[in-house]
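Blackboard transcription, Thursday session:
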Amino acid sequence: MNIILLSGGSGKRLWPLSNDIRSKQFIKIFRKEDGTYGSMVQRVYDQIRRAVPEATVTIATSKTQVSAIRNQLGEDVNICVEPCRRDTFPAIALAGAYLCDVKGVSEEEPAVVCPVDPYVDETYFSEIARLGALLADDVNLALIGIEPTYPSEKYGYIIPETQEKISAVQAFKEKPDQDLARSYIEKGALWNGGVFAFKLGYLRAKTQEQTGYKSYGDLLSGYSALTKISFDYAVTEKEEHIQVMRFKGKWKDLGTWNTLTEAMDDQVVGQALYDQTCENLHVINELNVPIVCMGLKNAVVAASAEGILVSDKEQSSYIKPYVDQIDQQIMFAEKSWGSFRVIDVEEGSMTIKITLNPGHGMNYHSHEHRDEVWTVIAGRGKTIVDGMEQPVQPGDVITIEAGCRHTIIAETELRVVEVQLGQEISVHDKKKYRLDS
Amino acid sequence: MNIILLSGGSGKRLWPLSNDIRSKQFIKIFRKEDGTYGSMVQRVYDQIRRAVPEATVTIATSKTQVSAIRNQLGEDVNICVEPCRRDTFPAIALAGAYLCDVKGVSEEEPAVVCPVDPYVDETYFSEIARLGALLADDVNLALIGIEPTYPSEKYGYIIPETQEKISAVQAFKEKPDQDLARSYIEKGALWNGGVFAFKLGYLRAKTQEQTGYKSYGDLLSGYSALTKISFDYAVTEKEEHIQVMRFKGKWKDLGTWNTLTEAMDDQVVGQALYDQTCENLHVINELNVPIVCMGLKNAVVAASAEGILVSDKEQSSYIKPYVDQIDQQIMFAEKSWGSFRVIDVEEGSMTIKITLNPGHGMNYHSHEHRDEVWTVIAGRGKTIVDGMEQPVQPGDVITIEAGCRHTIIAETELRVVEVQLGQEISVHDKKKYRLDS
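(Written on the board underneath:)
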């Protein structure tokens, strides 16, 4: 059993906790058994491991998310990396080719594609794992249909032919208005959960038909020229031999603050105080200073290094155009080796705090237009500057002039204050080198 | 004409913009002609200079505010520093003795005492300057009575004998409930604006009567043992030869977010965006990341390095007990030489950003329990470390071990990232030295 999790793009609708490089699936808001908080991607990954332990999970995503995924799920997770964003059909085609050509999976095997961020119980994953068994000579594609709980305008609808658990599909309907949604539901329509099961050979045939490419290598090299098209348009809506499995149970799409906060286990994550006149308030505070809330009703407050959102919950679904107006550099990022956070920005300088995970190091790199000063504030490790190795500990200061090759490697968790100095500070000013050991 | 401005204590009711060391009078929210923002103390000081240019202004305040006052009003401002807080009678007694004994002002001269933070027009200060002229053989004390605009429970009331502009006083009334306030107002009562005029000789007599001290030096050395008592209790309410001058005009006490935001010239100070469904919203953002507000009504959002407040305006007057629960170090402070802001706190380290004003320097000092690393990020100046002078510019790194005497002096505005390292980082770990030049 192969499960392909689609880890979708950046979204601004959960700003300031999601941004151009941090997607909503990485926000840590779900309380884990040990009292710490986990993200949606961690929650879904754990649920699948428990519900379908025999499944091979592959995450299809873009380059920008690889670091965050490895940081949150560990180094061993399978990732199929899209060179750029081309919508769901190319992403799924690439992941299928990756499984066959790189991982050696047989074309006879089924794969189930699922978004990385449904908010569901484990039973959902036991169900989707059953989709593979539906595939047969006369069933090329099997889908999940969610029993609607209200006439939503946000989802596509699947009209099944019967009200059985498993049914052929009569029609697909685009996102309707509320009245139309109500009439669909009266006919027994289901929400399209974005889950597709197919045999890998079927996907390869469709890929070749639509892109001309067959192998993983060809797809990868021609990827940036592929047409942006969704799997629904490219495949599902044209397929006649298709079945839908009805799912009745908890299923939420946590795409807006309104829906996300409904799913939160705690009213408050992070430092916050609120008075008794607050009602239906949720606070997520990633900053290290407190938030005090007084007399707020039906509101969400979210604060991160990127900014602060204070919103009526209903109104929160309309934030995108406002966030689009914000032209600001990235203030926080998870990397494969740890994370960094911008703590000060000046004309001619930027100060960041770097946390390196034990055993991890940055790429060996140099900058053309800036000097850097590292002050180690916690942990142990070593630096390599122009080939010279040096052990480091708290209090050590390393100055790196423009052009110098440098890296820092953590033995224990290592924290560093990095002051960048130069008139042209840019994330693009970076040249990587192989570190000959 | 002597005006004594009482710059009162720290308050938490305007948290996070006021805190233990920054009082509300220093928050910059009033738009100045040049488009920048000024504080209440700057606004009042400028208004007095324009309305009563002949007046000598002295600010009576505590040690903790001296730096902020000099930073906001300049080096030339007269300040009478209380060694500790002892309520308004000791503070006024000390300021009076300071004027006579230090500044050589005659005891025959009148002085007008006024809080530093009334939100008024300039005419208010022209009026209070006239109080001095009322003082005569049979008038020892002259007060301002504000014509009430509503039956407030927040103010003391003065019942005048007549409804004339100037009247003798029949009685003083404590803060009443609303019904009582209404009945006072029907009798022509006025709010007590906390303004007193007297001759300096009268104050000296009262001081000696109540404290046993006469001179500035004696008062200063015995200050910490003085009884905490207000000028109203100690003097005003016992005085029989007293007159009140009626003031009708704009007068507001900006003590809570609700009243403060009413006085703001702009709906937003700092980086913020809000949608059209927001109503009666005010935002003050001292952080360098944006705040986005959606669908907020009758709300105030205030963010500083100390924390974030999001409150219904009415409810905002009840924040004190919530803020009292916050046990946090000072994250921002104005000093006589500039300001600093905490940008990162770790176990075993703290990183701050220091801004030194041109021509200013820190005290020459050392720390017993911490090392420091300075990275200059902007400006020019010099450092002195254990007597060794060195010019500094952006990119320069200075490491200062525990025990080292050090200072930095700005030639142009100088900005420095300071990493403090040690297991016992405390503001109290500081030893000052004379810098022999």
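Lecturer's comment: Chain A touches chain B through 61 residues (CB under 8 Å).
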